[in-house]
Amino acid sequence: MREEIIVSGRMNHLIDPQLHIWHWHIPLYLFLGGLAAGILFFASLYTILGKEKEYPTAVRLAPFLTPVLLTVGLLALLLDLNHKLYFWQLYTTIRLESPMSWGAWTLMVVTPLSIVWCALNIKVLFPQWDWKYQWIWDLDAFFRKNLKVISWVLLISSLILGVYTGILFSAFNARPLWNTSILGPLFLTSGLSTGAAAIILMSKNAHERHNFARIDLMLIGIELFLIIHMFMGFLASTQVHIDAASLFLGGPYTTPFWLFVVTLGLAIPALLEVLEIKGYKMPVFIAPALVIFGGLMFRFIIAYAGQVSRWLY
């Protein structure tokens, strides 16, 4: 099976999953993209709400990770392409029916805006920093004047990026496990959760950590609901979808999924966050680190299991 990406009115075979099944590039790309989307969503949201001082890590500090996350993710995607020299063709046309086209153009918006966001906050985090050229000051003033507009664009594009990481899989009709509309919102929720967890890890503000623990707890609940709903949908569908669900319900992916994703990545962090909200003294880093680990494992397991899932012939 080949994924065919429509570019410039013709088929260009850029990715061939069968040539490198079990490789790590795509799940890593999806994880880093979702994590960056989550961080940028909260940064833009609290800027729009005028709560920059209340959530300094979310708005000013954590976004410094995003250009690195996006660059590494894009490098991983480039390594997975079968014809690497033709990647630029994704940016020469827009195909609304192609998930890869949506992802490429969304990243083309998100990546430079994430760099602009970091540049706007350099002076806040490093007051001694001094721009030497007047045109940089002029550019800085322009972006600050239009910060709300930038925030809205970043908010919307980060949500599209988060959903896209799941839609990229769900567009594969030949893989029953991936061919579900639940993957889009599920990957988005997971990306927001890992983004919130990264902010908790980086924050030194107790109030900020406490509020993001509440947000992450809500996101974990939504994620668990979507996972249950996904399996219920599979079990109520055709035999191939039942077989896809069976990979996690007694099949080879049962232990890694329910141990690493559900138990360590969702249930235990949720319990720890509930205890912290109730006032118990808990190590700050354990719950968010487990959430990030669970988000990474979730994408690897879904990527690998999806390649095993197939229609009957």
Question: How many beta-strand elements?
Answer: 2
Helix/strand order, N-terminal first: EEHHHHHHHHHHH
Largest sheet: 2 strands, antiparallel
Output the number of helix runs: 11
Q: Supply the number of structural domains.
A: 1
Subunit arrangement of the protein: single chain
> In the CATH hierarchy, what is the superfamily?
Formate dehydrogenase/DMSO reductase domain
**Low-confidence segments, ≥5 residues, pLDDT <50?**
1-22
Widest beta sheet: strand line-up:
1-2
Description:
The radius of gyration is 20 Å and the shape is globular. The longest helix is centred in the last third of the chain and has 30 residues. Strand 1 and strand 2 form a beta hairpin. The chain has a single domain, classed as Formate dehydrogenase/DMSO reductase fold (Up-down Bundle), CATH 1.20.1630. The N terminus is likely disordered. 41% of the residues are buried. Strands 1-2 form a two-stranded antiparallel sheet. The chain is 68% helix and 4% strand. It has 313 residues and is mostly helical.
